[in-house]
């Protein structure tokens, strides 16, 4: 089984910083990689219409597995690091065996809670 995960947060999905799961907006489960890839591509096309910037990462050639979209004007102020942080709308495909996300967790909109700066934690 495969998950297509949608994230919204301060970092592109390939960083997998501690607590990245808190940025999950939603996810869908699929039996085959082909089904997951079709959904991922459809969502990616929708995001491309909404956000002018895009960057992709691939585990293997010709296999899209992670993508981040953003609008340069969509930023939030981080008190801990004293700067504006870009906000990213991201998609990724993971096998369920790789997943650290409880299958019962779904969030319908980005969290409005105050975030702790993960950049400070990593330093």
From TrEMBL:
Name listed for the protein in its UniProt record: DUF1033 family protein
Family annotation (InterPro entries): DUF1033
Source species: Streptococcus moroccensis
Domain of life: Bacteria
């Amino acid at each position: 089984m495969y998950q297509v995960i949608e994230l919204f947060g301060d970092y592109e999905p390939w960083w997998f910083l501690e607590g990245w799961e808190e940025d999950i907006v939603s996810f869908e489960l699929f039996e085959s990689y082909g089904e997951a890839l079709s959904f991922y591509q459809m969502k990616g096309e929708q995001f491309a219409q909404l956000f002018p910037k895009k960057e992709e990462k691939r585990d293997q050639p010709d296999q899209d597995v992670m993508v981040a979209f953003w609008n340069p004007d969509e930023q939030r102020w981080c008190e801990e690091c004293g700067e504006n942080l870009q906000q990213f709308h991201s998609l990724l495909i993971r096998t369920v065996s790789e997943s650290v996300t409880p299958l019962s967790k779904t969030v319908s909109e980005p969290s409005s809670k105050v975030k702790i700066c993960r950049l400070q934690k990593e330093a």
